[in-house]
Structures are given as structure tokens and as C-alpha cells.
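Sharing a chain and its predicted structure for anyone who wants a worked example. Both blocks are below, sequence first, C-alpha cells second.
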Amino acid sequence: MSLFSLSGRSVAVVGAGRSGRAAVRLLHEEGAAVRLLEKTPENMPADFSAWLKENGIPVLGGEHVSAYFEGVDLVIPSPGAAKAVIEPLLSAGADGAKAGIMAETELAWRLLEGEPVIGVTGTSGKTTTTSIISAMLKAHGLRVFTGGNIGVPLSEYVLARRHGEPRADVVVLELSSFQLQTCSTLHPRVGVLLNISENHLDFHKDMEEYTEAKMRLFSHQTEEDIAVLSPTLRSLPEKFGMKARVLFLTPGAHPFPETRLIGAHNQSNAEAAFLAVSPFGVTEEEAARAMREFAPIAHRLEHIADIAGVRYVNDSKCTTIEALKVALASFERPVVLLAGGKFKGGDVEGMKPLLAKHVRAVALYGASREHFEPAWKDTVPVSWDETMDEALARARSLAEEGDTVLLAPATSSYDQYKNYLERGDHFRDLVLRMQKEEA
């Protein structure tokens, strides 16, 4: 569908999260006939509900059904609304064609004004790498928009430009497989793929589909563009017919030793960032300065406090077994590990060598005890408590001076928390309360 043909076209936006709200506003400005599908419209922000009413935009609540999509030319889903769930609800129109499904990112990309894009994807490390890239570009004096899956929808940037905000020199986007799966023309000047491991198989039907979604980041690049890939993914450029100049990361590289970021994986992320920004004139000196000044991102190996010689680190964003491997490998000092929550799958047994090498004890809490305890109890002492409060108190009693108490749940948070942010905030609050009591 041509981006010039939105006027008068019927478009359904699925979900009133931040990206959905931005897409509705942008489509309305483009002259589209928009309808919003939101399962719980009563939970929408009051100012947005008022704006919808003022502009006559219909809201269809409750479970999504086929009737809600009748007469629609285009569907813009929320990142969490799977293409496989929406497609069966779409019926063919008079011309025999079904409505297209387009990511909010793709919609906004088509309405950019030529700004170069750096796109970052991968199973883990996306947010940190995206943020480092932006910091390095800013160290060079460039104006940067940072968004996508990192929190600010690209549609918000397009709307801001329409209302007089200055143009970005570079647009830096974190992109999930959910977003990329329904991107059809997105063309980044630089694409970064950090890694691929088993994840989101509740959304994608299998690893092949998940990998194909990630690789869509490169499908419209040309010989003049750059792709940055992990060396473990050397088979993919040929398999997917990539045209861009491919740069592989260096195993074991340590390019920016002066940094507050924990772990060898963050050196790899920093190398990926520098390769991505080099075409924009960023020098190694500027990149190094950005790394020295870069503050760790909340919930990603975030150092909270040192109490009685024990370091407390929040890695609530660790939601998979693969992420737990990366987290544990980041520490030389012994670890007392807090883990537990809604299990997403993965090789729990395969963790034993890392546990034996790095972990003094495991303090489980919440759900998934049945996955972890039987697999690990013969390798390392394992305890279990109902809540994180209890597990943290136990971990504190087990930790010795020089140890790290690490929250790295290796699960989603949905057994006891709304999301990993709430889980990490709770851990931080508990630790800071302990620090205050110790003082």
C-alpha cells in the first residue's frame, strides 16, 4: 500500500499501548479513517480517550472478532499482537485481497524524510547496544532520535517533526522480532544483529520463523549499507542473500575497558555500537568517552549497592536461560543467585557447569521451583521461598564478603509481577532498605 494513499483508507489499530496511541494520532493526521481495537478501553489514558471522542474515532472493546476488521485496508498491530492471531480474523474484500498487516515502525518509517536509520535487534543486549550507539553519536555532536522497542515509538518522532521539532541526524531503533515480522520496506543504513537464541516461541511458531523475522532487518539493504553480526551467525548472510557489507564482531574483544558496564558481553555490545556509528564519523576517542560516561541501564546487570562487602546486582531483564548464562559469566566473584518466576523454557540441566564455576548458592522464589530445584540441587545448594522478600533475606544470610547477590530470574515475571520492571524495582527497593538499615 502506497504511503501516499492513506487518506480516506480504512485502518484498524490493534491495542492502545504507547505505539498504538501514536499510530492512531499519526494515521488521523494522514487522513485515514481509523478505528481502534482495545480489549480494555476503560484502562486507556483519560486524555487519549477524550481526544478519540473529540475526533470521532471509534473504539471497539472486548475480545477481537472478525467483524471488527470488516472493510479494513490495513491493520497496525501492537507489538504483542501476533500476526498469526490477527490473520485468521481478516476476510477478503471485494477485490479478493485481505487487509495488509503493518508494524507501527514500518508505518512511521515510510513517513520519514530521509533520515538515516541504525536498526538493532537480537535476542538479548538490544537496549544496551541501542543506548550505547546513541551515546556515541551524541559524543560526535549529532542530533539523535532513539526509539522503537526501547520505549518511544517512531510514530512519535514523525508527529513531533510535523509539529516543529528539529530533524534528527540519525534515527536509532531497537527492533524486536514482533515489529520486524510485519516490516516490509524498512531499510536501515546500518543493521545490527547481536545474537539469536531460543525465545518468544509462544509468539513465533518455531525458531525458523523467529530467525526469519530478525533477518528482515537486512532484507532491503544494498551494497552501500552495513550489517554488523555476531561471529556465531556466519551462515546467515549467504542463507538469506544479504547484500550489505557484513562486519563480524571479534570474539573476546575488549575495545573499551574504561566503563561502568559489567561483563564481557557488554564489551561485545560496545564493539557492535562502534562499528555501527563509524560510518557517521564517530572517532574511537569519542566512542571511548561515551563509554566512560555511559550509565548502566536499569534492570540490566545494574549495580544497586554494596552492603557489608557484598555487591547487589539487579538483572531482572534476565528472562531466559540463555540470558542467565550471560549474566553468570559476567562475574569473577562468587554469586548467590536469586531466580524464579514463570518459566519460558530452556536447557536448565545445561546450566550446571556455569553454576559449579560461579554460584555459591541459589535462592529460588515464586513459580518454577519444579524446573530448577531438581536439576540443580546436586550441583549447588538450592533453597526456595514463596516471595522475593524472603529469598533475598535468605541470600543475604548465605552471602560472604566479596560475593555478589544477583537477581537473574531466568523467567518472565508474570507469576508475581506485572513485568520485569516492577520485579526489578521491588528488588532495588528491598536492597536500598537493607542498605539504610545497615548504615
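Comments welcome. DSSP finds 16 helices and 17 strands in the chain.
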